[in-house]
């Protein structure tokens, strides 16, 4: 059975997250040519092409995207095992800001595993809209922020995942068939809200805001009650809702980038450790 070297996987993920072999080399302490050799070795081990050739920015093939998901989980498990056994353990308090929908879906599991492997770290978690979190981080309120961005606009954060966007509606009502389209939205500056209104405006499609809530649970309750439709990152779509696509007359909405933002003013070993763990756990 083939064993994949973790040093190759770590360099691979750095290249994916940072968008270039040169920056990945800086992150892992290797030259650009050494990173290229590592990636060629990884491709030879797997017998698969992982990167699209001839592109200025690192772009994954379908096989590369598949490996990225597995690699993040393997590295997260590796780092969890190492952190749980190494002494001294990382300690301190990390003030984390994250969008509501991720705290209700993916992050509880990720943070739970992190807490088990780093019992000396205390987490203070605050939920808000991505743009609000980043503004508050600039004021010194957070050590680490997980935020959603339009693709290619990370604002200095490290991209850790790309999320396809999905329309959802009620399974018990047909409000999605009515015109004008009834929407369930968060208030500004919600990135989902901006994407919906810009797209519908470009398509000259009629709409009305039927319900506004700043909480993920409030938005889901309104959608399930049939008050309207909304847009969510695919990994945060819960059970008990109807996914809506082109067959139901809903346009393709593209994707968003999930980025991790550290704080230069409040950098700490605990915050850096959590940032690395979150980055490796997504996907």
TrEMBL record:
Keywords of this entry: DNA-binding, Transcription, Transcription regulation
GO MF entry, a single one: DNA binding
HTH lysR-type domain residues: 4-61
UniProt-listed Pfam families: HTH_1, LysR_substrate
Protein family (similarity comment): Belongs to the LysR transcriptional regulatory family.
Protein name as annotated: LysR family transcriptional regulator
Species: Thauera aminoaromatica S2
């Amino acid at each position: 059975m083939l064993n994949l070297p973790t040093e190759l996987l770590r360099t691979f993920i750095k290249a994916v997250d940072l968008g270039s072999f040169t920056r990945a080399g800086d992150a892992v302490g290797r030259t650009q040519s050494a990173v290229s050799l590592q990636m060629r070795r990884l491709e030879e081990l797997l017998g698969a092409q992982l990167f699209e050739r001839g592109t200025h920015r690192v772009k994954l093939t379908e096989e590369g995207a598949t490996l990225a998901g597995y690699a993040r989980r393997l590295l997260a498990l590796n780092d969890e095992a190492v952190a749980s056994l190494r002494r001294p353990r990382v300690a301190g308090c990390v003030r984390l800001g994250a969008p509501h929908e991720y705290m209700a879906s993916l992050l509880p599991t990720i943070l739970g595993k992190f807490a088990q492997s780093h019992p000396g770290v205390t987490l203070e978690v605050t939920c808000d809209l991505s743009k609000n979190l980043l503004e508050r981080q600039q004021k010194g309120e957070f050590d680490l922020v997980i935020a959603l961005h339009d693709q290619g606009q990370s604002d200095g954060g490290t991209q850790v995942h790309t999320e396809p966007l999905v329309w959802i509606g009620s399974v018990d009502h047909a409000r999605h068939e009515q015109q004008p389209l009834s929407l369930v939205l968060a208030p500004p500056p919600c990135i989902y809200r901006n994407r919906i209104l810009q797209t519908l405006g470009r398509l000259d499609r009629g709409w009305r805001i039927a319900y506004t809530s700043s909480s993920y649970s409030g938005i889901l309750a309104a959608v399930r009650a049939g008050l309207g439709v909304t847009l969510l990152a695919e990994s945060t779509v819960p059970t008990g809702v109807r996914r809506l696509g082109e067959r139901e007359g809903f346009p393709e909405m593209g994707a968003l980038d999930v980025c991790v933002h550290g704080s230069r003013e409040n950098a700490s070993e605990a915050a850096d450790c959590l940032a690395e763990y979150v980055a490796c756990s997504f996907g």
